[in-house]
Design a protein that fits this description.
By secondary structure, the chain is an alpha+beta fold. It is built from 19 helices and 9 strands. It starts with a helix and ends in a 10-residue tail after the last helix.
Length: 455
Amino acid sequence: MIATWAARMIEGDVAHPLVPVVDAVLAAFADGAARPHEVARLGAFADALARSAAVTELDPELRALSHAGFLRGAMVVLATSLREAPRADVAVLLARELLDAIDVDLGVRLLHATLALPEVDGTRMTRGGIFAQANLLLGEQLRDRGDAAGALRHFEAVLAHDIDHARALRGWQQATATLERRGLLGTRPGRGLSLLDGLDELESAQAFGLARYELSRPLGRGRHAVVYQAYDRHVGRDVAIKRLLDSDGTRTASRVMQARFFDEARTLARVRSPYVVALLDVQPRHRLIALELCKGGSLRLGMRRGLVDAADLPRIAAQLRRALDAVHAAGAVHRDVKPANILLRTAFRGAPVALADFGVAQGIGPAGVGPQAGTLRYLAPELRGGATRATAASDRFGAGVVLLELLLYPTPLPDAFDRIDDDLDVTSHVPDDAPASVRDLLRSLLARDPDARRW
């Protein structure tokens, strides 16, 4: 039997995707639950919800009510609030309590309904946002219930936008190990790309799983492309698959993005260097390129993990020089030299680096003039001043900033690097107490005069 006051709440038309699940919560827990006017702290909790208090304020109050024996009443208050004013963050808060052995099926239903909300989909790129929270809870619940394949999809959805997420990575590894033990991992492609790109499972299988490449874990995602680790069945090796995402713009914009995407492949095809990521395959039909896999992650991630530090600067500088020399010898400029675009070949100290992501690379000379590109803090002074012609010298400036960042880490770069200033002179930020060879190299690479930049 449902309490009369709760029954009145669930009458009428369903106007929001969360409502059917919220009604089920009210039907399951309202009868016999303490009510706000009966318990002062429960009333205060209801008032906090009514004024749209942040979850950081609601969560400790919910725990306190649970400890005091009023969890059932608190859940009904949450459900009532969700019915009157749906909030995705509150839905996740309620789902978490349901999953805690109270009513797991209702918790899973509520999380699925939350993920279906457009405003939640809009938080995909937000680290620790509602999209990530809901997928993480679902992944862990499905893993614990023995659905490793279902759990894998949700962990991949988190890792696609936050590759460093420890809980998601641990869950992904556990789900993958379970599928491997069952002999299932090699018989089906990873479905993370379907979650990221709006592909259905059949299209994903036709494009990758049944052809040459078997998709595995997500490695990263940008505005226009997603990168996955994959297994190349033809030659028996792991590779990185970079696939162009569908454009949200016009057909002309889509064609422009596709042209730029495959310009990257043409540039890479001309470059020969052990310190540049190698191009392995191009499939225009499926809008993908296959690249050499670097398992150590980016240089920035390597700094965070302690895989590289200031002592490695001379070695990395020499490798980066050889990489850029090869790019420039091939008649191109990279235009976006930064730690995120420099990869470590292995996840061990001493691993060589490889320059990657040639998505905004252009030819040297007048034909290379085009829209401004690059990341401000690594942009040469002459480009900050409005010039649109990138050169080998502007690439060398970017390399100098990367090396200075490595030298200073964990101290961040000075604010001067984030200013739009064509009079920028950052050589004064090179520490005087740095080794003489390092100090001279950095001051040369960071010279305001492009012609003065030398390795």
